Amino acid sequence: MSIDQVTSKSLNMKLYNLKKFVGGWVVGNFYPSIIKTKDFEFGVKHYMSGQKDDIHKHIQAQEITIIVSGVFRFNGKKVRKDDVILLDKDVVSKFECLEEGSIACVKTPSVVGDKHIIKKS
């Protein structure tokens, strides 16, 4: 397709705001979701220095976390931009933001209720 063949319909995109989604999660088997699927979840989350997540684990899902910006402590290890963390099923997640930043997460599969809190932050 040449640029001359592009129609207004083919340029019609949908625009969303991350703040309208629960915890930055935009894809998965939940509402609201841009794409509802049981196959995986995707989210982008922003943290301020000192913020912590509840200590938790997933029994049915694996989770991949990509550090987009900032510095975090993840299960006792300092991680920063471009680090990628894989948490297998039943691996505990203990997470703290050391310097303001953002992460991107993928969980597979998307199972409602699979976040098992061990300790509230």
The CATH class assignment of the domain at 40-111 is: Mainly Beta
Radius of gyration, in Å, reads: 17 Å
CATH superfamily of the domain at 40-111: Jelly Rolls
User: Which stretches are low in confidence, meaning pLDDT under 50 for 5 or more residues running?
Assistant: none
Order of helices and strands: EEEEEEEE
The main sheet comes to: 6 strands, antiparallel
Helicity, as a percent range:
under 10%
CATH architecture of the domain at 40-111: Sandwich
Q: Say what the CATH topology of the domain at 40-111 is.
A: Jelly Rolls
Shape: globular
The total count of helices amounts to: 0
Q: Count the strands?
A: 8
Mean pLDDT: 94
Strand content: 35-45%
Spell out the key features of this protein.
121 residues, mainly beta, Jelly Rolls, 6-stranded antiparallel sheet, two-stranded antiparallel sheet
How would you describe this protein?
With 121 residues, this protein is mainly beta. The strands form 2 sheets. Strands 1, 2, 4, 5, 6 and 7 form a 6-stranded antiparallel beta sheet that branches. It has a two-stranded antiparallel sheet with strand order 3-8. It has a domain at 40-111: Jelly Rolls. It has strands spanning 25-27, 41-47, 55-58, 62-74, 77-80, 84-87, 95-108, 115-119. The mean pLDDT is 94.
